[in-house]
Design brief:
By secondary structure, this protein is an alpha/beta fold. It has twelve helices and eight strands.
């Protein structure tokens, strides 16, 4: 695809760069790559419409951040099936470019199909890992992310790599989850299934995963090297899911959803019953009501 004038020329993932982060003994994020290029990525593609509805309210803050900053070249980290990238591309207009990057090939393929169907040439997508991708230096004037930056196994190196990819003063706006305790809906499935599934061991709070950026002090430490003016503000989004969407969600998404297809019929039925009971408190008149508790992280490149 031909880029509009002044758009970034992105280095290939395996291209050497003098500003690239040091290489490691093993490729970074191997566990996340394996997960998101198999069942998890395929599930998110299959449930794209449901997830777009669930997370729709998070698109506007990120699109507005890029537009209000006058950004022309925006990088969307963990773009998934492309909803946020497309929203940002629309917001910044035909003279800009939003590049979505995700470690999941199935999700990036889905994002490319969506952009093509919409005819939105100002959105492009890369299948790669932002932690080690060889971006051309000083390529972007803004970075956004919706639930994408919590999955780095070496977040210090990841944000150092992103700093090399952006121009001085570039804005960073990321939406991440707050703590599990503040998100009872998002954790109800695991809490219900844990006594039934020995495989569902408690997650390390600082390991790559949904709540890895729940601690604001840890986030500030990660960003301290190359980012200034760090602000972390709460964002609470009230949400609803129909009963049918809720059943689809709890049986397919998250750590429990990844495990369910491999269970025997009896265990799967037992877990499914426990999940239904766990989400019953959120139901009212056939609709699940809950709040998504997040942080909005903003910063500027030093």
């Amino acid at each position: 695809m031909t880029l509009p004038p002044d758009q970034p020329d992105l280095a290939a993932p395996d291209q050497a760069s003098p500003n690239q982060a040091p290489s490691h003994q093993a490729p970074p994020n191997q566990i996340m790559s394996a997960l998101w290029n198999t069942r998890a990525g395929e599930t998110w593609v299959a449930q794209q419409a449901l997830l777009d509805r669930l997370f729709l309210a998070f698109e506007a803050p990120l699109a507005s951040a890029a537009r209000d900053a006058g950004a022309r070249n925006v990088l969307d980290i963990g773009c998934g099936a492309g909803a946020t990238t497309l929203a940002v591309a629309r917001a910044i207009g035909p003279d800009g470019q939003c590049t979505g990057l995700d470690i999941s090939v199935p999700l990036v393929d889905a994002a490319r199909r969506r952009a093509a169907a919409e005819g939105l040439r100002t959105a492009q997508f890369i299948a790669g890992d932002a932690q080690g991708h060889a971006f051309a230096p000083d390529s972007f004037d803004a970075v956004v992310s919706r639930f994408g930056v919590m999955f780095f196994d070496q977040p210090d190196l990841a944000f150092a790599n992103l700093r090399r990819a952006v121009r001085d003063g570039a804005g960073l706006t990321c939406i991440v989850w707050r703590s599990p305790a503040e998100n009872p809906f998002m954790t109800a499935g695991e809490r219900a299934a844990a006594p039934l599934l020995s495989q569902l061991v408690p997650a390390d709070p600082e390991a790559p995963g949904q709540f890895a950026f729940a601690d604001p002090d840890r986030v500030r430490d990660i960003l301290a090297g190359g980012w200034r003016d760090v602000e972390i503000q709460p964002l609470d989004i009230p949400c609803t899911l129909s009963e049918s969407d809720l059943q689809t969600y709890i049986m397919n998404m998250g750590r429990v959803g990844v495990l369910l297809p491999d269970l025997d019929d009896r265990t799967r039925a037992t877990v499914a019953e426990a999940l239904t009971c766990a989400f019953a408190p959120f139901m009212s008149d056939g609709v699940a009501h809950f709040t998504l508790a997040c942080w909005v992280i903003t910063a500027r490149a030093r």
